[in-house]
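Hi support team,

I've been running sequence recovery on a batch of backbones for a student project. Most finish fine, but this one hangs at about 90% for roughly twenty minutes before it completes. I'm not sure whether the input is malformed or the queue is just slow. I've pasted the structure tokens below so you can try to reproduce it. Let me know if you need the job ID as well.

Thanks,
M.K.
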């Protein structure tokens, strides 16, 4: 059973990457957001791909164990001209979706432009604008990397979109 918009839910946001996978946890109660924690999983660059993916898995599993989120959200892959880089990012994203799913969590996906539009109000906002809005939306948050900040933005996006969806469902739309 899905909690109503007025019940508190803990959300994990994940910004997948092979060098740094950012994560952020927020508590959402209706439109109210509370910062819980954020950070990043940073596998050594010298590790083979499979071991880097394992490090991402293990790091996210520790986050899930420590903060016990009820739902998760992951940023969709941005497809660029370098097909090999996109494929590798997709593998990191697969791990980022797998870990919460293995723990029985709902895993939502959001396009990068939707995350920016939700948090900043513009779909082509830059990282500085996202970090400025995070200071307003989550004053206690102090992400140490852009990846952690992006992960918090993904969690915020999920919080806002899940509340909107539940309200539409409540009115029968």
């Amino acid at each position: 059973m899905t909690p109503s918009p007025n019940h508190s839910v803990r959300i994990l946001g994940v910004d997948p990457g092979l060098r740094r996978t950012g994560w952020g946890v927020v508590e959402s109660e209706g439109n109210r957001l509370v910062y819980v924690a954020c950070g990043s999983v940073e596998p050594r660059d010298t590790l083979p791909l499979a071991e880097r993916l394992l490090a991402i898995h293990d790091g996210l599993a520790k986050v899930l164990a420590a903060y016990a989120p009820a739902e998760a959200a992951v940023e969709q892959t941005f497809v660029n001209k370098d097909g090999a880089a996109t494929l590798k990012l997709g593998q990191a994203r697969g791990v980022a979706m797998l870990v919460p799913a293995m723990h029985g969590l709902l895993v939502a996906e959001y396009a990068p432009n939707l995350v920016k539009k939700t948090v900043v109000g513009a779909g082509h906002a830059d990282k500085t604008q996202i970090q400025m809005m995070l200071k307003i939306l989550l004053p206690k948050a102090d992400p140490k990397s852009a990846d952690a900040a992006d992960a918090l933005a993904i969690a915020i996006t999920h919080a806002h979109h899940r509340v909107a969806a539940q309200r539409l469902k409540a009115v029968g739309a």
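--
Follow-up from support: It reproduced on our side and the slowdown came from queue contention, not your input. Helices lie at 49-67, 83-102, 112-120, 127-137, 146-170. No action needed from you.
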